[in-house]
Each structure stands twice: as structure tokens, then as C-alpha cells.
Amino acid sequence: MAKRDVVFPPGRQALYEKNRYSPAVRSNGFLFVSGQVGSREDGSPEPDLEAQVRLAFKNLNAVLGAAGCTFDDVVDVTVFIVDAEANFEKAWKIVPEFWGDAPHPTLTGIGVTWLYGFKFEIKVIAKLPGNGEG
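The line above is the sequence of Enamine deaminase RidA (YjgF/YER057c/UK114 family); the predicted C-alpha cells follow.
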């Protein structure tokens, strides 16, 4: 297997190395982005749900930007929400601030019981601009 073409956003590489995963990998014209949460610089959760969702999108946009992408390049989204029945509407009202205009990407929403102290996580696949090489 060829070495993975990993994308790191500025300033957070130590957190990814500590937790032993890549924030994103380029492959075959696509960018596969690991789940992004509303973590502060030190990796701790932002306690307020709405602020946590905004920070998750900010962290996602940093990863996308490091690969030369924007949210407009996203084709598939998976969101994970702790206690989705109670938190979905609160989290989802923030999404239009980042989502852009139609046509929108595909979406899968999953209610979960635990996200390592977080309440919201977003994972995406984006089409790389140009020939797909970073």
C-alpha cells in the first residue's frame, strides 16, 4: 500500500498524533475527513452545545482549507449527536451558518450515547478541486 497522503490543519498536529489518527486523507480525487468535534486548542470539549457545533465546523473548515477545499466541495456528511432527541434541533439550527446553498451534500444523522465528552461530531467526504491531487 502506498503511504497515505495525510492533510493536517495548522496548529493541531500534536492532538492528532497524540490520539493516533489522521485528520484527513487524500485518495483518488477525494478527501476523507475524520470526525471533527467542537474541541478547544487543548482538545477539551467546548461545553455549550451551540458553541460546540460552531467550533466543530470551524475545525472542519480548517481541515478542508488545508487540502484546498471548502464546504462547497463536500459531497457526503455524517453527523453524530449525543441524545439526538433532545439535541438535534439545537445543533441543527447552527448548520445553515456553514452549510451553504442548495444543492446540499448527502447526509446521514446518527444518534449516539457517547462521544468522548462531546455532543456533536461531523465527518465528511469532499471532492478535491482540479485533478484531485493536493
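Note on the example: The chain is about 30% helix and 30% strand. Helices lie at 13-19, 49-66, 84-92, 96-99.
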